[in-house]
Amino acid sequence: MRSDGEPPLAPGQAGARAFKEDTGVEPTYRIAAQKVDIGTAAEARALVSNPADAEGKVPAVAQVKYTHVRGATVREYPRVGDYAEVYADGRRGAKVTGGDAGRPKGCADSDEIKNWRSGQSYLLCNTFLIPARARSVQVMWTEIGGEPFVWTF
User: Fold this and answer.
1) What DSSP string runs through 86-153?
2) What is the C-alpha end-to-end distance of the chain, expressed in Å?
3) Starting at the edge strand that comes first in sequence, how are the strands of the sheet with 137-141 ordered?
4) pTM of the full predicted structure?
5) I want to staple 33 with a disulfide (CB 3.0 to 4.6 A). Which of 56, 80, 141, 151 is the partner?
6) Could you tell me the domains of the chain?
7) Cβ–Cβ < 8 Å for 78, 21
């Protein structure tokens, strides 16, 4: 666990934490934000039903690698990937949900993961809309009430 005041993690650097899944099991995961892909304004408009919601925004896709390092097998629907968020200039982006939400090739769909065992890794991705002119981008992963892992890109 990282405490307040510690510097952010570098891209690809991992932190480890036990995480209680909705199914009741509590495996330990190694969590490492790999990269953030920043898209275009046109891509942002294609991700929302109302183009006005994307005005001045671009998609930022956080790609985070999760490795199950110990604990019970996660039989289905792991939620650990739901807790990664993208921040731009210190403010949380607007999460894009539904469809493939711009999921890049190589990113797993957590709803399709079954029997996730110790030693197995998945790349899970979350898409957020951020200001097109953002100067700094961070990925933050934290569970409710937990200390965050923060990566700066």
Assistant:
1) EEETTEEPEEE-STTTTPPTT-B-GGG-EEE-TT-EEEEEEEEEEETT-S-EEEEE--TTSPPEEEE-
2) 20
3) 91-92, 84-88, 137-141, 149-152
4) 0.92
5) 151
6) 15-152 (2.60.40)
7) yes
